[in-house]
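Appendix B, record 7
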Amino acid sequence: MLTLGALPAVAAPAKISVAPQNATIEVTTTKQFSASVSFSPSTVTWEVNGIKGGNTTVGTISTTGVYTPPAVIPSVNSVTISARSTSRTTVLGSAKLTVTRQVPVLSTITPSPITVGAYAESLSGSKFAADSKVMVNGTAVKTTFISSSQLKAEGTAAAAGTLTFAVMQPGPGSVTGNSMTATVVNNTSVSVSVSPTAVTLPLGGAQAFTASLTGTTNASLTWSVNGIAGGSSTVGTVNGAGVYIAPTTMPSASTVTVQATSVASPTSFAKATVTLQAPVRVTVTPTAASVPLGKTQTFVAAVTGSTNTGVAWQVNGVTGGSATLGTISAAGLYTAPASMPSSSVVTVRAVATADTTAVAQASVTITQTTTTTSPMLTGARFLEQSSFGPTSASLARVQQIGVTSYLDEQLNMPPTPIPDLTGRGTRELSEWMLYNYTKSPDQLRQRVSYALSQVVVTSTRKLITADEMLPWLRILNDNAFGNYRDILRQMSVSPSMGKYLDLANSMKAGLAGGANENYPRELMQLFTIGLVKLNQDGSVVLGADGQPVSTYSQDTVREVARALTGWTYPTAPGATAKDNNWEYFVGQLEARPNNHDTGAKAFLGCSVPAGQAVAQDLDSVIDCLMAHPNVPPFIATRLIRSLVMSNPSPAYIKRVADVFAGTTTGVRGDLRATVRAILTDPEARQDTPTATGGRLKEPILQVAGFLRALNGGFADGSGLTYIYENMGQGVLAPPTVFSWFSPVFHIPNSTLFGPEFQIYSPSESVQKGNLIFALLTGSMGNSGYTLDLSPFQPYGNDMPGLVEAVNQTFHYGRMPAEMKQALIAAASPGQDATSRIVTAVYLSALSGQYAVQY
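Structure tokens (predicted):
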């Protein structure tokens, strides 16, 4: 018998599998490949068309299998992706990959339906290209490229029926996007009418519309709202009988259109306009207040849901109040009675004129004791808002001529010239700025310029010489009381901004670099309209989904960037003018038509015609932005927060925004009128602190105000700017385009805005304390600044007198009694008069009461 031995084992074949197989990729994206290796080690190298790592012609692939298409699709747009074993180099696995152009997306075709004969249709969507072709029933028609989101198609519809539209991207990697069908109808004489043609309805209200037709025996109609058959819960619904039911919540637009369309002739229709009215609502600020006998409190009412924003004021139900309970004016100024009423609590009510059922109220507690205030308080508060802090001289001047006359005096004062620091570093310029903050006579201009510098931002972190910063500074200085449009226009052609936000040498598509989007984006987001739509009172506009409505899209940025191409740096003396000049900062940016995109542009509801010059396109952009409804409340809010308070009421914002918009002056963007409105508003001039009033002083303002209160200031060339870096506010050196702190930063664990709190850290507080102590004690050698403690010398051995002098100097009579006692206790052990004065002044300057401007 034959015995067979055991059969030898057969090894599995060495194999590499690549996934995915037979994939497709758009040229602007990437594709991840993976390799499955049946043996060890499992490491592979990646190839494209047999080239390790690929190249710029066929595309590249990373060591981890990520394929990136070439910038230009090759004529043969199918490539082979291979994974080759690092140990058995003859073993590899492959996959096919087809590279296509971006797949266009077709969203709408208008007008629709199409009438038999020649047509010109507007196609909207995305990913359109300059060489896109519109295909109608599979045949290319005349196509005009408008933008990446809009094409125009022209052709002829031979007969009634349908036409199928699609967009094709030709060339290597040709691809055709989705298709849409449009109805073609015969031109008839059918006429439709709707009655009534315009109505006003409350939310949830109903209206029956009737329609009549002529020119046809077919009386059938279809009803729609804003183009939606039958409407929707967002814009309201309409049934087949023409009964419209308004939505229960306000849509993004308060006006909707109800349309009746002939079934026999879909091009024949009639429309009616429905204006929706939200319920009238009233809010009162503040909602509670304590008012001493005979003193006043301003209440502000805001009315929504009606164009009539008037209110009638009542005290305990009596219009205008009474001598017993206190009176209230038509402007909301409540005056407490001279003697205590039977109840110390009264109710102030605001009743809407448009709807007397809409009421809001506030509680007023009448107190026997009055708060002791310094007679200088009104002037001092005004100077804290309109300068870098009061001095004894400026405070005396305000008390002598009054706030209004002092404001006029400052508004008409010529600007302090900015010195020529050509060839100098930014340190010298920063040192001069500290000097200017504390010593310039035109304090209001400098404070407003400082506020504007936090809206239209540059920084020495990128502009590294004084030459580069000076054009930006001079624009703000010269135009602080001018027109905001002039600031935007001059900034756009400033070499400072040309470098900081990269507008200089931004070019049309096809040239090196293309259109730079940095400046266009910040021009909208930070300088003019912000990210979300605003009402005139600064409140956010919400869409049907309850979310904020965006002001612009990435397509908007691209269109504005195209309009702003074609600028380069000024030509330096002795240099040859080039299309792309090297950095030079004397003069304005120069136009270069060769680098400018002359095509038509469309953004924010504005159209810029083709063929305009470089400067004309810039003016079109500035005009469009200045006309945007967001600009008045956006700029008003930022300037109020920088000058007066972090949490202005909606009514305060609206009053200032109306002035900026030209509602009262007839001039849009008038900063002189806007600044006057901000500083003279009742909320700004309310001397009684409120729970949400005031703003935290940032380091520049607090230290500058401290030195000015002591009739001192910084010297030009002080050498102290480095200290501000340690306090989070490097002079002229904000870290981002949002400045040193975000204008929309909230106080931690609070709903209140507090921009300056973003840099109010423990370390910043310690650094500020160290600086103030060093200034007081001269531990820095008394160089670079001045201050005068001599007014306190008579009180060196009189602790109550010393603390009261400190109270008048820094707090204008508002120092709490508890704080006075604490300062007396802290300063009393001092070894001599000087040490006691320094202790009292130092602790007062570090107090929370002094840190807040209110």
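Remarks on this record: Residues 747 and 757 are 6 Å apart (CA to CA). Residues 1-7 have pLDDT under 50 and may be disordered.
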